[in-house]
Amino acid sequence: MDITSLAHCAFETPDVARLTDHYETVVGLHVAHRDADGTTYMAVNGGAPAIVLHPGARARLRHVALELAPGATAMDAAARLERSGVAATIAADAAPGVVAQVDFEDVGGHAVRLVEPAARGAHHGDRPVGSGPGIAPEKLGHVARRVTDPADVCSFYEDVLGFRVSDWIGDYFVFLRCGPEHHVVNFVRSPSAPALDHLAFQVHDVAHLTRACDVLASHGVPLIWGPGRHGAGHNLYVYYRNPDDQIVELFCDLDVMLDERVGAFEPRPWHEDRPQRPKVWDPEVGANQWGLGVPAEMLR
Length: 300
Ligand SMILES: [Fe+2]
Prior knowledge:
Layout: E1 3-13, H1 16-27, E2 30-34, E3 40-43, E4 49-55, E5 60-68, H2 74-83, E6 89-91, E7 98-105, E8 111-117, E9 139-147, H3 150-159, E10 164-169, E11 173-177, E12 185-189, E13 195-202, H4 206-218, E14 223-229, E15 236-241, E16 247-252, E17 279-281, H5 283-287
Parallel strand pairs: 1-4, 5-8, 9-12, 10-17, 13-16
Antiparallel strand pairs: 1-5, 2-3, 3-4, 6-7, 7-8, 9-13, 10-11, 11-12, 14-15, 15-16
Fe (ii) ion binds at residues 142, 144, 198, 200, 249.
């Protein structure tokens, strides 16, 4: 399977208007499209929808959409999934900006959608990075999900979907890449699985991250963790909860592996190893290079 990136995350929410207002006013996304039933597609700076909000009885992650590589079709993807013993459905109601899509459930019990995009390489408008309103992130960066067996889910993403392992923290948290970025999906063992752990928007740099914290403060949104620098991935981070009580991360400085043949991440002055290769981290160091430890608020 040839997957290039995270396309979007779709949620159900009991209050589409409230969550739309949050993502517009605080995060700085804009409404790209609205269906008759109220489903709202929200984009980052003129790009394809990154967040989709469906009306629903309770707040929950509905699916995670991954973008197929140029030349890879939803039809081929469905056939490959079937050959791997995974039941897949070609969805008829292709979303805005999507040519075709295929739906299936991963072994962690999470709904996944593979999409053939209508356009590529046109994912940003002309608004300067970090310009308002709101935080104005660069893009949706990754989605972390809670699972009962991260090793099993990891094998599925490697063997069936073609992801590569970037790091493990202990035996309970795995980070996977499908392109140069350290992770676009990650999976943590949790008794509340299957569930969303957090979604994450990429900001440009530490100045943008600081401004994002100011924006959150101006809207009365408290941080629940950070700022700090993770060990695994080495991203600078802050976390807060959105109006649906879901954890949202803002990050920058994520490790990148520009050439898979090299097998190491691009050198950075804060790396512990030289070169910094995928590895299994000690839980203490993997969670945090600096900053306060994981608060209980992150684990509920
Ligand atoms: Fe994250």
